[in-house]
Each structure stands twice: as structure tokens, then as C-alpha cells.
Amino acid sequence: MSPVIEVHARARLITDGPLTRPVPVDLRYDPADERRTVHIGLPDGTDWAFGRDLLERGLRTPIERGAVRVWPCGRTQLIVELHSTDGVEVFQFEIRTLIRFLARTRAQTPATAAPGTPVTPSDAGREPQPPSRTTTTTTARRPEREAQPERGAQPARG
Fold this sequence. Notes:
Elements: E1 5-14, E2 21-29, E3 37-41, E4 46-51, H1 52-58, E5 63-65, E6 68-73, E7 77-84, E8 87-94, H2 95-108, E9 155-157
Antiparallel strand pairs: 1-2, 1-8, 2-3, 3-4, 4-9, 5-6, 6-7, 7-8
């Protein structure tokens, strides 16, 4: 069994005011979890869980599933917007931090999938790519909705 991957990172909390502030976050991934779920632990104890593919796709294009929205902001930043009954929290991450984290998750993901689940080419050990130079998203704007809801994308207080 592979160990859980945990990375202590910094993100910037985006607020309505003119200033943002850095906050520590924990990125976690358990290779034994067949759902391939990424956890983002926030300083207030909130733990958000959603599919790793959401974070990977958000590196290239805006995507939304359930209460989580992810989109690139220029070439070096990624915005993660989390909606709950308590409100909305918006975080800005350095893309290179997330790429390194996702590469580690790929290296630890078992090569075999759950029975009846095909292994997709994206799980073949390929490192996720940052947005291309042609990315036009340069400001933190609201992404278009994707019709597919995310199962289990909700905060878990802990």
C-alpha cells in the first residue's frame, strides 16, 4: 500500500477588499482511494474533497462541478472557488505547486483500476501540463458551468 501524499502549500485567499492574504493549505491524496479524490484542508479545519481530474482539467480550462469551480488565471496561477452554505471562498494557487502535487499523485496511483472501470490514458503516468501560452483567461472571472455535477463535492468539517 502506498503512503498518503500530503503537501503543505500556500494559497492566497481572495477577498472583496483590495488585499489578498496568504493562507496555509494542506493538499492530500490517498492512492488507495479508487475515487481518486484530492483533499484541500483549509486553516479553519474545513476539508474539501473532489476528483483529481477536476483539478487537472482546471489547469487548462474553466470547469465546475457541484460546489467547486476551478480555472486558470494567466499562465502561473489557478483559481479554486469553493461554495458552501457559509458562503464562498476563493483561493489562488501557484500552478507549479499543483503540477508537482498532481505528478506525485500520478506516480503513486495503482496501475489497475477498480473492477469494471477502464484505466484512462490520463492515468498512464503522464505529468499534467500547465496552460498553454494561448490561454486567454487573464483575470479571475467566473467560469462557464459544466453540466456534469460532482459527486461528493462538499465540505466536511473536522
